[in-house]
Write a structure and sequence with these properties.
2 domains, 4-stranded parallel sheet, alpha/beta, Rossmann fold, 10 helices
């Protein structure tokens, strides 16, 4: 689906979107401010392609049979003129290598790609908090941090069990409750900081969390990174 007018000469970001389903007779709402798919989130156009069969539940738990669908959707975006590829779910980092191997443009499937860089921004005594949609499925294999000393500096917390978590597992999911998302993310950060006062920065894994990133920054008074930051950097390097 095209969310922003793209001229023939525009450089646009291609976004791999998950299935959202449809309610008969109900017109899909415009993506919320801060969403990867909202035309005002970026200062460049975005175009999305749905990854067939990829719902939140099976992407989060890591269904390997989805890889061909991710590749096919990425190739469709490149054929349409995308100069870079991203996604609407941080857990799609499982398909980062396969998608990158299949197209000839930069691929940034998840904000988790930023983690090794963020660790180097701070002293070795500092920790980075990774805020994820579901910490029970966000294992070491997704973090890209092989050094045990650096891995010890990464604290993972999730909002599993909260309202946003439950809503996103429905087919189709209801309209996003941004207030509930913000409350769940803020509560998780509070728990992590109480247990780990060394936290110096926060990385939002979930590609939905940019909708509350500004509010979280103003509350926690720490650097907060998300997938939109990585997309802006990638597009700036091209355009």
């Amino acid at each position: 689906m095209l969310y922003q007018m793209v001229s023939q000469n525009s450089s646009f970001l291609g976004i791999l979107g998950l299935e959202r389903g449809a309610v008969p007779g109900v017109t899909p709402s415009t993506p919320r401010p801060g969403s990867m798919l909202n035309p005002l989130t970026f200062n460049f156009p975005v175009v999305s392609e749905t990854v067939t069969g990829a719902w939140v539940e099976n992407v989060v738990r890591g269904d390997p049979t989805l890889e061909s669908a991710f590749i096919a959707a990425a190739r469709r975006l490149v054929d349409r003129g995308a100069v870079a590829i991203s996604s609407t779910c941080g857990f799609s980092i499982r398909h980062q290598l396969a998608v990158a191997e299949s197209v000839n443009v930069p691929v940034v499937m998840s904000s988790l790609l930023l983690l090794p860089t963020l660790l180097r921004q701070f002293p070795t005594t500092a920790k980075i908090a990774v805020l994820t949609y579901d910490s029970s499925h966000c294992g070491d294999e997704l973090l890209g941090v092989d050094d045990p000393a650096e891995r010890a500096r990464v604290v993972v917390g999730g909002i599993e069990g909260g309202k946003f978590w439950h809503d996103e597992l429905k087919r189709p999911p209801p309209p996003i409750d941004v207030a509930a998302m913000e409350a769940d993310v803020a509560a998780c950060i509070d728990r992590l900081r109480a247990a780990h006062p060394e936290i110096a920065s926060i990385l939002l894994e979930c590609a939905g969390f940019p909708m509350v990133a500004t509010a979280i920054r103003s509350t926690v008074k720490l650097p907060v990174y998300d997938i939109t930051d990585l997309c802006r950097m990638t597009m700036a390097s091209i355009a």
